[in-house]
Design brief:
Layout (H helix, E strand, L loop, with lengths): L2 H10 L9 H20 L7 E5 L11 E4 L2 E5 H14 L5 H17 L2 H8 L2 E5 L2 E4 L5 H14 L5 H8 L4
Parallel strand pairs: 1-3
Antiparallel strand pairs: 2-3, 4-5
Length: 170
Amino acid sequence: MSDLDLAVGLLRATPTHENRTDGQLRAWAEIALAYGDELAAGNDSDDVQVVEREGGVSDSELVLAEHQRGTVVVYTEALRRVEELARARGWPVTREALRRAAVAHELAHHRLDVRELNRRLGHTAFRLGPLRLRGHVAGAEEISAHRFAHLRSGLAVSPLLITTALAGGN
C-alpha cells in the first residue's frame, strides 16, 4: 500500500471520520502528507537532547517517544516491541532506524504549525452565515509527523505501515 492509502485508512479508523467520504479523506491525507514533506525539506535547526527510558508500553497504548521541554524521551520497551513486530513481518528495520524515526516524529510535532495545517486542510466545523469556524482534522498531525519521520530517518518501512500493523490493520 502507498502512504496515501495507509493515511486514508488511518483517517477512516479515526472515530470522528466514520461518515466522511473516501474523497474527503483522500484529499485530507494528501494535504497532511504534503505538509510532512514540506517540514522535512526545511532546515535542521532543532537542537534537542535525546534520552532513553524503559517503558512506553501499557495495556492501552504504545508510546515510542515524547517531546518534553526540549528533550525527546525514547522508550526502550516500546522500541523493542516495534522491532519485534518488524522482524516478525520480515521488514528490514533496525532498532537504530526506529529510534531515529521516533525522534524525528517528535521533532515534527514540535515544528508543526497546527493552525497552518488546519488552514490547508480547509475543514469547516461550523458555519453561521458568513462566519466560519475552521475545524481540526483528527489524525492529520500524525500523518504529517509520520511522513516527516520517514523522510528524515531513512527508515526502510513507512511509519504509517508500522502504525497500521500495530493497530491490527495490516
